[in-house]
Amino acid sequence: MRLGFKLIAEAYSPVEIVDQAVRAEEAGFDFVEVSDHFHPWVPEHEHSGFAFSMLAAAAARTSTIELATGVTCPFIRYHPAIVAQAAATTALLSGDRFTLGVGAGERLNEHVVGQGWPAVAQRHEMLREALEIIRLLWSGGYHSYDGKHLKLEDARVFDLPDTLPRIAVAAGGPAAARIAGELGDALFTTEPRKDLVTAYEQAGGDGRRYAEVPLAWAPTEDEAAESARRLFRFGITGWKVQAELPNPVNFAAATELVTADHLREEFGCGPDVARHVEIAKPFVEAGYDQLALINAGPDMDGFFDFFSKELGPALRKLSS
């Protein structure tokens, strides 16, 4: 099992995000993944830097840690040709340390270009077409594509790495997990659901299985839980809400009644290693081998020290 760190680009400035990637490498993480958003989730976040710029800067300041988007929607706000180019360039700049995480997106980020917000079935069709276009462009040479939703006209990505980036496809249900198995190289989820791993494998998937593990480190459990409520209360609304609301003010209204106690139920909160291992264990038991830790606590430097000295060794024992 490999351990990663979630760079929460909505809650920290681009400079802080790059600094955190450097600290994650120093603390012994195997990879980092950064959210690719146009808007933050809730008003308290106040940030939302451009993911590929932050990854390029992180690549220049690190040497071994792997980098990933967690995740990019490769249609509507972007055209898949642009994503193919951005991912190839990031792979080159990082020395082939880059994984392209993709998913069917959220209205929060995609509505901003005024192209509407399709139903989930159509978004899955668009995701399939986007992945086909990216693969086509990564094969070298000029290509065109005439799909039901997406088109490509006489395009070529000139700078391609010798080793193409891995594509990890995000899944909130079996349909998306099947897309990951058919067209991706890895699965990406946010819940410890065995059924998603099963659907992925039944569709032919045999690669890495990424999952985000929620925690909040602080010297006390109460401080950690309150920080998690402030920064990550949107995370307990579920994908049927998260995919559909358009702006931070809407998420503020939807989470008005969420309390710190609600977050305690979902997150490992505080300095107790055993509680964080308890939260991570179901992911391992469900078959996930790439755990990206989310720290919704108030002290990032304290968290990195906690991980390097206590949490990281405990989690690696869990995997064995």
TrEMBL record:
The keyword Oxidoreductase applies. The keyword Translocase does not apply. InterPro entries: F420-G6PD/mer, F420_G6P_DH-rel, Luciferase-like_dom, Luciferase-like_sf. Pfam families: Bac_luciferase. Residues 13-270 form the Luciferase-like domain. This is G6PDH family F420-dependent oxidoreductase. Keywords: Oxidoreductase. GO terms for molecular function: oxidoreductase activity, acting on paired donors, with incorporation or reduction of molecular oxygen. The lineage of its organism: Bacteria, Bacillati, Actinomycetota, Actinomycetes, Propionibacteriales.
